[in-house]
Specification:
Elements lengths: L3 E3 L2 E2 L5 E2 L15 E8 L7 E2 L6 E2 L2 E2 L4 E9 L2 E8 L6 H15 L6 E5 L10 H15 L9 H18 L5 E8 L5 E2 L1 E4 L4 E3 L8 E4 L6 E8 L6 E8 L10 E2 L3 H13 L4 E6 L5 E2 L11 H15 L4 E2 L6 E10 L5 H10 L10 H16 L3 E12 L2 E5 L3 E2 L1 H10 L4 E5 L8 E2 L2 H6 L2 H4 L7 H18 L8
């Protein structure tokens, strides 16, 4: 990918801050300020867990779950990026939190992105499966003894307090940015098969595999945060396109990003905090089909952390940071189902966590129920673009987005480095490419939107990026 630059600072493992130069409508001597904060969002034990089609109850804590915020300010422009160790952010939680953040932190609603890392070992607190298991437990037990706390409500309040803390921590820092290549960890999980069609995860050493049906994105895109005048990073926003499903079990875990931060701290000091963001990895996982066995979360995180630590010195500084934010949405039509299909899905949901139905039949029933819960014919897919300087920008997208969409944005972006982050502000399921919809398999069966919405999001993201590039203030003379 292209290279990038920036300006930011970290004070301790909980907060950072930063300075920079002029945005739109800002005075010439206005500097960018950045603040960060970290907050524990681990649910109680037991609590229902996310990630699969069976009901799992948490039995302990392997490692704690966190939400991490980055507050941005320059002149009259303010924004916030929040990253949560969760499988997704429901539109209800995102909307409630963003409205409260707007009121209490004076950050415009459209300048706030709350993203999930997609950990499969966090809480199941929203969605069609949550509703199904919740209703079944009440029917069988007379009450729901697993949800005596309002986790979504508590999450909203914690996210508001988190952004408030990050704003209070805001101050001058230096930013550096760019991309670091790691090719050993991520694999496209969709394959063309000799017997025809495309399958996802067809099994390691499967002799019927012809080749992968899509690419990978080997770039870890990084914006590192430094005390003014220091080359030693004290934190970084890191985007990497690899599905977080490497742990399993019934203990809470942030998955491989936790181990990545551990290794980065070993290399860069205990103050270092990573703000991990999931790149577009809807069709990407950690399974190498050419061998037996799989890397563990600790192995993946450690390898990624070492690679990023070695690449830190190659990142370039943003000499004249310039903050600006744009957001818009794609009005995405939802898939439509007949009354008969809806009734069949309702019946099939009774067996969603059993082997009575095939896997894809269970997936389809769940998808139809999820579409019905939207109570609309279309949904807004919000796209946000953050400009940090002449060379670097960040894009956030909703849903589990196929890697080709992210690559299209990066490759056509007018910025040298563009971080593309998925699962922001809503969790509308998979966003495949048109090509993938034609090919079929799990991700397309589990998608709720009509084909073509991923390409529309990419086009919108590029329009926003071009607007941000064209509106850059003139560079100051050195």
């Amino acid at each position: 990918m292209k290279n990038t630059l920036s300006t930011c600072l970290l004070v301790n493992s909980l907060v950072f801050f930063s300075h920079a130069a002029t945005p739109q409508k800002a005075l010439a001597d206005d500097r960018m300020k950045i603040g960060t904060a970290v907050m524990d969002i681990t649910p109680p034990v037991p609590y229902r867990m996310s990630g699969y089609f069976s009901e799992r109850l948490s039995t302990g804590i392997k490692d704690r779950l966190f939400a991490k915020a980055v507050f941005l300010e320059q002149g009259t422009t303010r924004g916030a990026l929040v990253f949560c160790d969760l499988i997704g952010i429901s539109t209800q939680v995102a909307s409630r939190a963003r409205k409260k953040i707007e009121a209490q932190c004076e950050i415009p609603f459209g300048n706030i992105s709350i993203a999930a890392t997609h950990s499969h070992t966090g809480p199941l607190y929203f969605g069609a499966l949550h509703q199904h298991f919740h209703a079944r437990r009440i029917k069988n037990n007379g009450r729901h003894d697993l949800e005596e706390i309002d986790y979504p409500g508590q999450l909203v309040e914690k996210l508001v307090q988190l952004v408030l803390k990050s704003r209070k921590a805001a101050g001058e820092v230096d930013l550096r940015a760019g991309s670091i290549i790691e090719k050993r960890l991520a694999f496209n999980r969709r394959f063309y098969m000799k017997k025809g069609g495309v399958r996802f995860n067809p099994g390691q050493l499967n002799p019927d595999i012809i080749r992968a049906a899509g690419p990978v994105d080997p770039e870890a895109c990084v914006v590192s945060l430094h005390r003014p005048g220091s080359t030693q990073p004290l934190g970084a926003i890191i985007s990497y396109a690899l599905h977080l499903d490497t742990v399993g079990g019934t203990e809470y875990s942030a998955d491989y990003p936790k181990h990545m931060q551990d290794r980065l701290r070993e290399n860069l000091g205990n103050e270092f905090t990573s703000f991990f963001a999931a790149g577009t990895c809807g069709d990407i996982n950690h399974i190498d089909i050419s061998i037996q066995g799989r890397r563990t979360a600790e192995e993946i995180g450690s390898l990624l952390g070492d690679t990023i630590a070695r690449g830190m010195p190659s990142l370039g500084p943003i000499i004249q940071p310039s903050l600006a934010i744009r957001s818009d949405h794609v009005d995405a039509p939802l898939q439509q189902f007949s009354k008969q299909e809806t009734e069949q899905a309702k019946e099939n949901m009774k067996w969603v966590d059993t082997n009575r139905l095939s896997f894809l039949e269970r997936v389809r029933a769940y998808k139809i129920k999820a579409v019905g819960m939207r109570k609309a014919d279309s949904i807004p897919l919000e796209v946000h673009a953050y400009r940090l300087g002449p060379e670097v920008a960040i894009v956030t997208l909703p849903g589990e987005v196929f890697v080709e969409i992210g690559l299209a944005i990066k490759n056509a972006s007018p910025f040298e480095t563009t971080l593309v982050i998925e699962l922001a502000n809503d969790a509308p399921g998979y966003i495949p490419t048109r090509k993938a919809f034609a090919e079929g398999s799990y991700e397309t069966v589990n998608s709720r939107v009509e084909p073509g919405q991923g390409e529309k999001m990419a086009a919108l993201a590029l329009r926003l990026l071009k607007e941000l590039k064209q509106s850059l203030p003139k560079r100051k003379a050195p």
